[in-house]
């Protein structure tokens, strides 16, 4: 992959975009298509023009730390309520605008977490005192029950969190990001950030979920891995690839060559 560091034609500035974790276009449909999107994007999306990159913020994968570290270099910065825009939504609405207005075709990058650990982080996050007494709280619920609730046909509010896969796929259910990193192996991500954003880019721990007992019965784990098959298989490929994959086939050799 060739390095893209030239600034695209067009005006500078802007603010931000994104949507909820669920792959739902109801809110995102407010963004007009074509040139009319300019006014919306002035309060719109986070894109890095000089690096020709856009970050897909998969929840509970260190997004707060990464966004805070990269914010000074973002030409478009997203507001909090539009933080977790999916890759599919980006490709449908924002990518055409950036290409038409700026001649920019950013590559997408994201981080993926092991499915069980990802759910465990959500479970702990929803045990925080601020949620006690609310339907979203997991206080007084075991992690095993939480996962079983999540897998049930009538999923209760405390277990409604969405899928990592829906954050990084296209509308036709193909992987839509160009570079993907494993949350559990931060080395390649740090190397990538240093290469594209500068050696001074560091990630601090932010928005860490409180500690809590979170054991899972073997039978529940088997059902979870079956239901989250796409994430589980892709995450295994990431770890087998040294913590990252990139390119049309998401092959390790492609990304490795960019660091040579």
Please state the second-level CATH architecture.
Answer: 3-Layer(aba) Sandwich
Q: How many beta-strand elements?
A: 5
Rounded to an integer, what's the Rg over CA atoms? 19 Å
What structural class is derived from the secondary structure elements? alpha/beta
Give the spatial strand order of the biggest sheet: 1-2-3-4-5
Order of helices and strands: HEEHHEHHHEHHHEH
Q: How many helix segments?
A: 10
CATH hierarchy class name? Alpha Beta
Question: And the CATH topology?
Answer: Rossmann fold
Distance between the termini: 11 Å
SS strand fraction: 5-15%
Low-pLDDT regions:
1-29, 31-44, 251-260
Q: What does the average pLDDT come to?
A: 78
* Count of discrete domains: 1
Helix content: 25-40%
Q: What characterizes the major β-sheet?
A: 5 strands, mixed
Backbone shape: globular
Key words describing this protein structure:
single chain, 260 residues, alpha/beta, Rossmann fold, five-stranded mixed beta sheet, 10 helices, globular, disordered N terminus, disordered C terminus
Give an overview in words:
It is a single chain. The chain has 260 residues and is an alpha/beta fold. It has a single domain (28-259), classed as Rossmann fold (3-Layer(aba) Sandwich). Helices cover 37% and strands 7% of the residues. It contains 10 helices and 5 strands, in the order H-E-E-H-H-E-H-H-H-E-H-H-H-E-H. A 5-stranded mixed β-sheet has the order 1-2-3-4-5. A hairpin with a 4-residue loop joins strand 1 (47-48) and strand 2. The longest helix has 16 residues, at 87-102. The termini are close together. Residues 1-29, 31-44 and 251-260 have low confidence and may be disordered.
């Amino acid at each position: 992959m060739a390095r893209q560091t030239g600034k695209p034609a067009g005006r500078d500035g802007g603010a931000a975009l994104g949507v909820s974790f669920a792959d739902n276009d109801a809110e995102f449909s407010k963004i007009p298509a074509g040139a009319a999107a300019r006014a919306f994007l002035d309060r719109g999306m986070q894109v890095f023009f000089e690096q020709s990159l856009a970050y897909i913020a998969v929840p509970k994968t260190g997004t707060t730390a990464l966004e805070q570290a990269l914010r000074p270099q973002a030409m478009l910065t997203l507001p909090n309520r539009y933080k977790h825009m999916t890759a599919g939504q980006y490709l449908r609405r924002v990518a055409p605008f950036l290409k038409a207005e700026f001649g920019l075709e950013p590559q997408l990058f994201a981080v993926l977490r092991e499915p069980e650990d990802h759910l465990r982080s959500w479970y702990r996050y929803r045990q925080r005192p601020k949620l006690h007494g609310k339907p979203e709280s997991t206080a007084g619920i075991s992690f095993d029950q939480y996962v079983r609730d999540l897998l049930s046909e009538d999923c209760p509010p405390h277990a409604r969190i969405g899928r990592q896969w829906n954050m990084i796929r296209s509308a036709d259910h193909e992987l839509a990001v160009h570079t993907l990193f494993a949350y559990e192996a931060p080395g390649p991500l740090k190397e990538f950030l240093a290469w594209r954003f500068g050696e001074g880019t560091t990630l601090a721990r932010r928005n860490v979920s409180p500690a809590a007992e979170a054991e899972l019965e073997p039978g529940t784990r088997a059902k979870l891995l079956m239901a989250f098959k796409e994430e589980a298989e892709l995450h295994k490929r990431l770890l087998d690839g040294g913590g990252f994959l990139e390119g049309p086939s998401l092959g390790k050799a492609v990304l490795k060559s960019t660091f040579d």
